[in-house]
Amino acid sequence: MGTQLDSTSLQLPVQFPEAEDFLPLNGTDHVEFYVSNAKQAAHFYKTAFGFQDHAYAGLETGVKDRTSYVLKQGRIILIFTAPMKADSPINDHIVKHGDGVKNISIWVDDATKSWEITTGRGAESAFEPYTLEDEDGTVTLSGIKTYGDTVHVFVERHNYSGTFMPGYRPMKRPHQPEDVGLLYIDHMVGNVGWNEMNIWGDFYKNVMGFAQLVSFDDKDISTEYTALMSKVMTNGNGRIKYPINEPAAGRKKSQIEEYIDFYNGPGCQHIAVATHDIIQTVRTLRAQGVEFLEVPKSYYDDLLDRVGDIEEDIVPLRELGILVDRDDEGYLLQLFTRPLMDRPTLFFEIIQRKGAVSFGKGNFKALFEAIELEQSNRGTL
Fold it and tell me: How many domains, in total, are found in the chain?
């Protein structure tokens, strides 16, 4: 990221004027995971996903209660933070949830104003604004609570010229793998409990000025056994999109119920990361050990009849298991990893948009059947 995000690099031209954007929100700044072993987690995401060292905070930088490794690829910045002591809110979070996303941080012009406006509109404060400072300038942070134990952190960094933020030092170890072509975070999905989707949809609308981009009910997202409902909320410039999922009644336990059972509450279900060449990205990720959901090969038998002409050769799509869907604006290609934790909770989505602004509605049935097969193998369906 350097010192500040380049708004032109996000390549998301679609605007949503119905969103108020009164803060405003410029884009995703970073995502922080709480994990039991930050060094090992960072090594995994470097080796498997092609992220590279960016910054570090820990005992060597004067931080006594935690260790944080900051990784970067394209415009994506991930922080992996582990507690140094058992008596720690970070450790409490890990005991309850396992490794997972704690802070979804948003780049803003004014973190103090963002906190004042959102708490004034009903958000519960996670922490009041404060400023970090070093020889490279200042960064101001504030936070509000959202679903479960997840926090939105507002990050104001226009007065900072350092690597990441005060308290961190630049880091680049000898092992720096090649990136795999990941560019930016396309969207992040939150799983919430029964009858909570509308509550959190209203939160993003009324507290943060988002608009509803699309919604799906249990008729759209269902199989013979399970179902869920979802609303996709977006800010005005389209760079921040948060689908919110809740369970729906079905014959067996849905993926949302399984997630909530193992995560012990609502949380971030998956992070969708964009690429300009999904075939090459997925091929590299598979070679580096990333495991993906497997869809039936029959999915490809009538693919072109369903989605129309596409630029890609269907052979590598079939070989790699990449899904395709079309909307009125174009088409997209997508693929989902298996859960990245021991608990069946967080996973990644790899997505390439060829004009489409939707979320792969035509792939829901095949995707959910693949997830149900995984659930059946785990004995949790």
Answer: 2
